Amino acid sequence: MCGIAGFNWQDRAIIEMMAQVITHRGPDDEGFYLDSSVSLGHRRLSVIDISEKGHQPMEFKHLVIVYNGEVYNFRQLREQLRSRGYNFISDSDTEVVLYSYHQWGPSCVDRFNGMWAFCIYDKQKNVFFLSRDRFGIKPLYYYFDGSRFIFSSSLKAIRKHNLDLHISVPALNFFFYQKYIGNDLTIFENCYKLRPSENLLFDLNKKKLTRTKYYNLEHQISEHQGTPIKQRLESIENTVTDAVEKRLIADVPVGSFLSGGVDSSLISAIISKNHKNFDTFSIGFKDKSYDELKYSKLTAQYIQTDHHYDYMEVDENLVKFIIENMDEPFGDTSLFPTYLLSKITRRRVTVSLSGDAGDEIFGGYDTYKAYKLARYVPRPVMRLSKYFIDLLPPSDKKVTLTFKMKRFVRDLDSNVNRRHLNWMATFNDSQRKELLNDDFVSADSFINCSCEKNFLSVQLNDIHNYLPEDILKKVDLASMLNSLEARVPFLDHRLVPLVLSLPEEYKITNLTTKWLLRKIASNYLPKKIVHRPKKGFTVPVSKWIRKSNLIREFLTNRSYYEHNLLSYDYVQRLFNAHINNEEDNARQLWLVFVFNYWWRKNG
After folding, report:
1. What is the pLDDT of residues 513-543, one digit of tens each?
2. Is cis: bond before 378, omega within 30 of 0?
3. List of domains in the chain
4. In degrees, to the nearest 5, what angle opens at C-alpha 44 toward C-alphas 40 and 48?
5. How far is CA 26 from the centre of its chain?
6. SS in 3 state form for 325-356?
7. pLDDT computed for residue 388 by the predictor
């Protein structure tokens, strides 16, 4: 995996500074291209064709590319291009992407099976062509003020320019609502994310940009719904195994994360069936309420992989290191164990397969079960139960039944998507009003809640928002800080619409999540793994807040509120109630800590 950067004028000093910021994304090589109109930079993590022939920026005739990603069907595309007269000098997929654009133009991305974020500079047309993969596995940020256009894999790299950046109020609200920043927003005004499935064309002469969507998931789902279910089910199992196999292509060692959950266990089992002495990796914690190492050990023994693990703890130095390396505030605490897992994995391999996206695609979240329950529990019963559930004491344990019950009754809404987002929320609208005062923005202003009332609409909401800007962002940040490439088989674009096209009962049946995935996994794994309940990859935040002097300082010291964006008095009420064990406010307080610490280091 790599890091890219560029802008629409010539300045070697700044492009070199941008590349320096993203060295961890590509420690093996760096390269630059400059002319009177543009500056392009690249940092390379060598994975496919690790020779000098894969060096970037790569040029072909009037085209120059900086590319971050992997196109897994590049060999098939290379043969198609050869039949059209193209000659290749490398074995890299970068060259295939570049020639594909020369042959087919922007529509080349429709042919790619993989993950990518790239920019092609066309010197003849004097344009930048940027593209981000269908599901947003790889990040791509840009800044545009009407004149200057700057892009990179990292917001931090963009900030190497002398820019007058201000906090985006909608993004601030999004962060405290959902613990990540979604849509095309970033924490700064005039800085944006290219959204998944989007291309961007920037005219260097007119200084005009145009964004277009090249992939419509809903349309693909609709097309598959015309195919008999039996045929779809057969295709799904075959596609899962082929998607895994395709993501083993590399010229460096490849392994697989193995948490002991059904998603990563199935991927590892498929690999081990055809590849002996394969490496799998997991992490353990001393707190038994959070540790799941016994399940990964059991799976590894069953599928006979070379399993590697370590017991590691998250300390204050790690917390500071990771937050300081965030492009923008990010509140998903599973980032920390994911970072440690990536660190263990990078000791032996350069590429690792991940089980991410299994929950969104196959239906694995507790909130999906809550969606089904909410259809059958009468509203009066919900309102009455809320009074008694609120009396239950908080707990420091992982994700307790009490926490789930409180979340279930707290934020009911007739719109299924808004209700789902409220269940996922950290600060709902009424809480954010107290936290943000004049900067409060209603969630309806930045969340598109579909009028659809079916389960698929809830899944699509997660796939378009939560998946790219929380789950995949977390994996990219954690893995890239360790110069590790993470690949996501469940996001093969052939697989996703196939699974989503199925009726609801193939995803959740009698409150059993991921029914179809478990059925497929039963051919590879023991029942104890296939049917174990989802635990999640979290850390003991509630205990941290009580014990950590660092967190306490950034929550209670008024000097860390000099940004004047958060209500100090409101946060102190939350903090005191949490410390006195009156309420479990760990998730809210964590977001305040992350924001305050990030602001002090990056504001």
Report:
1. 999 999 999 999 999 999 887 766 667 888 8
2. no
3. 2-215 (3.60.20.10), 219-363+456-530 (3.40.50.620), 541-603 (no CATH)
4. 125
5. 19
6. CCCCCCCCCCHHHHHHHHHHHHCCCCEEECCC
7. 45
Instruction: Express each pLDDT in 139-179 by its tens digit.
Output: 999 999 999 999 999 999 999 999 999 999 999 999 999 99
In the residue annotation, 2 being an active-site residue is answered as yes
- Tracing tokens 């042919």 back to the chain, one arrives at 111
CB atoms within 10 A of CB 332: 21
Q: Residue 31 pairs with which residues in a beta bridge?
A: 42
* Confidence (pLDDT) at 192: 98
Please check whether residue 150 is in contact with residue 7, taking contact to mean a CB–CB distance below 8 angstroms: yes
If you average pLDDT over residues 223-236, what whole number do you get?
96
Burial 21-60 (b: 16+ CB within 10 A, else e): bbebbbeebbbbbbeeebbbbbbbbbbbbbeeebbbbbee
Average pLDDT (305-309) is 95
Q: What is the pLDDT of residue 448?
A: 74
User: What φ, ψ does residue 114 adopt, rounded to 5°?
Assistant: 170, -155
Exposure pattern of 424-462 as b/e (b: 16+ CB <10 Å)? Answer: bbbbbbebbbbbbeebbbebeebbebeeeeebbbbbbbb
Going along 35-187, which residue ranges are E strands?
Answer: 39-44, 58-60, 63-71, 114-122, 127-132, 141-144, 149-152
- The Cα–Cα gap between 146 and 125 comes to 20
Name the one residue in this structure whose structure tokens are 């993470």: 486
Any residues with CB less than 8 A from the CB of 560 and at least 6 apart, and which?
Answer: 553, 554, 596, 597, 599, 600
What value does the mean pLDDT of the chain take? 91
Please enumerate in sequence order all residues whose Cβ is within 8 A of that of 258, keeping only pairs 6 or more positions apart, or say none.
264, 265, 268, 280, 281, 282, 296, 299, 300, 305, 307
Distance CA 63, CA 328 (A): 32
- R_g (Cα) of the chain, nearest Å: 24
Give the 3-state DSSP-derived string for 140-160, with helices as H, strands as E and coil as C: CEEEECCCCEEEECCHHHHCC
**Which parts of 247-365 fold into alpha helices (H)?**
262-274, 293-303, 316-324, 335-346, 358-362
The answer to whether 165 and 88 are in contact (CB under 8 A) is no
Whether residue 402 is predicted with pLDDT greater than 60 in this model: the reply is no
Which residue is associated with the tokens 């954010």?
A: 432
Q: How high is the pLDDT of residue 285?
A: 80
**How confident is the model at residue 373, as a pLDDT?**
74
Q: What 8-state DSSP symbol labels residue 493?
A: T
Q: How far apart are CA 168 and CA 128, in angstroms?
A: 26
Place of tokens 């698929």: 456
Query: Which residue type does 523 have?
Result: N
Query: Residue 25's closest CA among 359, 321, 325, 388?
Result: 325
CB of 316 closer than 8 Å to CB of 593: no
Please give the structure tokens belonging to residue 456: 């698929």
209 bridge partner residues: 202
> 12: buried, middle or exposed (CB in 10 Å: 19+, 13-18, 0-12)?
exposed
At 379, the pLDDT band (50, 70, 90 cuts) reads: low
Residue of 2, 108, 119, 191 marked active site: 2
